[in-house]
Amino acid sequence: MLRLFNSFGRKIRPFHPVRKDLVTVFTCGPSVYQRAHIGNFRTFLFEDILVRYLEYSGYKVKRGLIFTDIEDKAVLEADKKHASVEQLTEKNFREFLDEMGLLRMKTPDYMPKASKSVYQAVEIIEQLLERKIAYWHKDNVYFDPLKFPGFGKLYGLDMSKWPKKKVLFHKDTYPGTQWNLGDFILWHGHKRCNLACWDTGLGKGRPSWNIQDPAMVSMYFDETLSIYCGGIDNLYRHHDYTLAILESIRPYPMAKFWLHGNHLLVNGRKMSKSKGNIYYTDTLLKEGYSMQEVRFFLIYGHYRKDLNFSAKNMKAAVNILRLCGETVQAIEKKASSSVPEDNAISQKILKIFSLHMDNDLNVKEAFDGVYKLVAGIDVQSLKQSEAAGIIRSLREIDEVLQVIF
Fold first, then answer.
1. E-assigned strand segments in 7-111
2. pTM higher than 0.85, yes or no?
3. Contact status, residue 214 vs residue 246, Cβ threshold 8 Å
4. Which is nearest to 200 in space by CA: 125, 113, 119, 127?
């Protein structure tokens, strides 16, 4: 049975979807004011593995991936480049889709953009205003966390430290992984949205980042999601904001399972422009690696542990994949076009893979276990049908991994 670490409660739990016939998954996507780097793709690839493994395990899955294309950063970047917000973000959105394909990521069923859910966001804000959970301050609308019982329950926020004096946070995002103890913005009035502004029932303005995910989720699912995913940074502020907004207008939990992936480091340090250590997929292609090898490096670990990128670590991981590939090619050559036959090795491949993947998606242990088994095969002693059976099992697990063939 698949067991996943649920950030809500901080425990590994047996996975059971909300609905037996369908697993609903929504995941935070990129903020397309800039190009996605390999650290971003590490998160999206863990989510890709999750969806693929759910399907491998027999579940039907519907997945949404959210695109943030209107926010403070997008407006500032567009202004700096003398472009419209749409021109800036559409270019990055298209590049992201291209890289998704090259990294063999499944195309999500839904890929909503924040700019296409503005009126859904307005509708939610109007409900929050009516219930007095949100309020106007000058031209903006803010959410009062003290009006939502259990605020911060996903993170486990100590509400005893909440300030007695009211504090308002006006920006979409703030740097770092600390909590903003105060009221957060839902709607930017027209004074702060000269490059991205809509005429709505709230007047001229744009929805803040905090309201965009609830708006996009509610466009597709009016029910508790089976799984909601994102990077570990989202455990600070963002996902509790999203949860509080949706659960303020719906009489049921937003999601049953919350999954969060850890950081990709570069030589032991967090990736950032200020440190000059940003890597993109084409950086690695220029160094002679294939996109399949980039995918392998980014999934070759456990999603809840930091992954350290370095020239040495990249080379070591890719060497393992290449050695595995050589052995698989030899088995494939032996198999020729023979009819596959189930055998002890082909069955053991599937058992080893499921054993580790069922343990909170431990891709590294799953791959290493299979590779160790395959590397120990005496290819010459195999019958053609046995070799074909082994290849069939490897192709089955590679429907999840997408790195062997």
1. 11-14, 23-27, 61-65
2. yes
3. yes
4. 119
